[in-house]
Amino acid sequence: MNQSNQGQQTSEGRHEDDAALADFLASLVDYTPTIPDELVEHYLGKSGFQCPDVRLIRLVAVATQKFIADVATDALQHCKARQSAVVKDKRDKQQKDKRLILTMDDLSKSLREYGVNVKHQEYFADSPSAGLDPASREE
Amino acid sequence: MKSKRNRPPPALPPPPPSTASSESDYAFTLTYTAVAQICSSTGFTASESPALRILTEIATRYLRSIAKSAAESANSANRTESNLTDITFSVEALCSVTGFPGASEVTGSFLNSGAVTELAKFTEHSEEIPFAKPLPRKIFSIGSEKSGKVLGNVGSNSNSEYIGGERKKHIPKWLPAMPVIAKEEEKGREKGKEIWGFCGKAKEIEIQREKKGEENNDRGERKGIELALKREKVRFKIGSAGGSGGLLGGGVCRRGGIGKRVLCENWSFDDKNHHQNIGTK
């Protein structure tokens, strides 16, 4: 609705934009974001944000949800691409075709596109002998 | 083929980090669940625990940075409450990393902001996934209302301890638990109008909760709203000297102040006569 009116005159277009925005805000009253309102309020309030309007709170929730969904979708694409690249190892492919797992590698790749640099440890050694050979560990 | 799948799955959405000891842990756990839901809605079947933790952390920071920039822009415009403009600008600022339609237009108004339009599309086209479990209202916003509940049930003896432990230290003990907000809330509910701060958002779910029949809690809260500590009546007598001098200074009192009446006791006769003389003259 919004885009169809872009070619029209400015005042009309602005009016339409206004109406579209009002519609969107009104639709937020019935929309339930995945991130609950209380949680958003909590975090917003912690950062000094005050707003009496539920719709704006939900707008923020939707924005966050969209961001996370975008990141997750990108990570999913990375995951799929990585899986399709490894065709040689048949066993690996068959196993992973069924399940898509959000891994740190995919996540850090997708987050890099959003300006977030994630550095993570390759692994944590839970005991001093964790990285040693199994043979030497048993001794 | 099947036998290969006997391996246990690498990581199903793991249980959220043990017990929520503090409020921030609790908030983190809730966000964790929400983020896991979002991830599963995009098509993931499972997730590594650290990846999900990082994503949760990023979601939290995203929320906070929206709030921070919106609050800052509201403050710079001499407002305390953020409005749609502030949020639009902060969302645009955060989206500017990846870009959004219309970002290059300098003169575009916030009404047709590309970022917000994308949000609108997102709500239209994406599936609506409510949070896994309905949350009790006011878990965060009005913590002391909970204390009202506790006070109502347990009794007023635990009052001081509870208040002393839970409330902020600068609030005197004798103040009841957040009465102003709760009362405003009730008023606002009656009027059906916009109210301040957190209470406004509490309205709808408050009503739902009442429908569910949690009247006991409400009663408890209302108990908590009223003054918990009974205090003795205090009476003041204003200066016995003034009382004794009342007869003498009766005439003086009407013209002068109370303090004068007490002080002028010695020469009030003269004073009285003087004034009477003036009066008669």
From TrEMBL, chain A:
Name the UniProt record assigns to this protein: Transcription initiation factor TFIID subunit 10
Signal peptide boundaries: none
GO MF assignments: promoter-specific chromatin binding; RNA polymerase II general transcription initiation factor activity; translation initiation factor activity
GO annotations of cellular component type: SAGA complex; transcription factor TFIID complex
Family assignment from sequence similarity: Belongs to the TAF10 family.
Locations listed in the record: Nucleus
UniProt superkingdom: Eukaryota
InterPro entries linked to this entry: TAF10 (IPR003923)
Function description: TAFs are components of the transcription factor IID (TFIID) complex that is essential for mediating regulation of RNA polymerase transcription.
Keywords assigned by UniProt, alphabetized: Nucleus, Transcription, Transcription regulation
Alphabetical GO biological process terms: transcription initiation at RNA polymerase II promoter
CDD domains associated with the record: HFD_TAF10
Organism phylogeny: Eukaryota, Viridiplantae, Streptophyta, Embryophyta, Tracheophyta
UniProtKB/TrEMBL annotation, chain B:
Gene3D superfamilies in UniProt: Histone, subunit A
Region (Disordered): 1-23
GO molecular function: protein heterodimerization activity
Tagged with keyword Methyltransferase: no
Bias kind Pro residues: ranges: 8-18
Primary location recorded for the protein, binned into one broad class: nucleus
Bromodomain associated domain sequence ranges: 24-100
One matching Pfam family: Bromo_TP
Localisation per UniProt entry: Nucleus
Keywords: Nucleus, Transcription, Transcription regulation
Name of the protein in question: Bromodomain associated domain-containing protein
Species whose genome carries this gene: Capsicum baccatum (Peruvian pepper)
